[in-house]
């Protein structure tokens, strides 16, 4: 099933929450900053280990760490694209960020997963266009594979919340 809520993803109890990270995996502002702040230093330590092993995380890919002190067991760090007008493969890269997060979740036995609205903050992806991609991609994955029981879209602003409510109702 898919649901949408308005709230702070760091407060969500789920097997995993997704972080809208950057390619360095070293943290930043927005939801990334909030997750590292609430989750404590173990998350960054694992991110640094991953970075030392594979040199960070490419746009559209995903890696997994502990949830540290968060209510969630794992954090899946993915990197959405920076919006550059729409002709730089942004739609596919955003869909890949969702797909690869879902895949790494399923590979780690995650049954309940929460997503923020990836790329719609600092990275400036148009919210309506990002919401269509997010809902479509998650729906397809759940229909096709079925390993994950519940995906929650956690919106931080009412504009995104209303967009997702409308898309999920349709
Ligand atoms: N819970 C849920 N959603 C949140 C929270 C929160 N606590 N805080 C912000 N959001 P952004 P991006 C929403 O900018 O656009 C970072 O510096 C926010 O309102 O966090 O993918 C990274 O290190 C927006 O809808 O991520 C990267 O450098 C959504 O989360 C860069 O920003 C995403 O906004 C990534 O940019």
Automatic annotation (TrEMBL):
UniProt superkingdom: Bacteria
Gene3D superfamilies cross-referenced by the UniProt entry: Leucine Aminopeptidase, subunit E, domain 1
Stretches assigned to the Macro domain: 1-170
InterPro entries registered for this protein in UniProt: Macro_dom, Macro_dom-like
SUPFAM superfamilies: Macro domain-like
Name of protein: O-acetyl-ADP-ribose deacetylase
Organism of provenance: Flavipsychrobacter stenotrophus
Taxonomic path: Bacteria, Pseudomonadati, Bacteroidota, Chitinophagia, Chitinophagales
């Amino acid at each position: 099933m898919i649901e949408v809520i308005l709230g702070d993803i760091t407060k969500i109890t789920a097997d995993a929450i997704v972080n809208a990270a950057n390619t360095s995996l070293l943290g930043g502002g927005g939801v990334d900053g909030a997750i590292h702040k609430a989750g404590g230093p173990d998350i960054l330590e694992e991110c640094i280990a991953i970075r030392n092993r594979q040199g960070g995380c490419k746009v559209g890919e995903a890696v997994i760490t502990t949830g540290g002190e968060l209510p969630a067991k794992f954090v899946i760090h993915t990197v959405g694209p920076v919006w550059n007008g729409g002709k730089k493969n942004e739609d596919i890269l955003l869909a890949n960020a969702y797909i690869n997060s879902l895949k790494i979740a399923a590979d780690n036995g995650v049954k309940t997963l929460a997503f923020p609205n990836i790329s719609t903050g600092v990275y400036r992806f148009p919210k309506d266009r990002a919401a269509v991609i997010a809902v479509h991609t998650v729906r397809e994955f759940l229909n096709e594979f079925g390993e994950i029981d519940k995906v929650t879209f956690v919106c931080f602003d009412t504009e995104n919340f209303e967009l997702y409510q409308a898309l999920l109702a349709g």
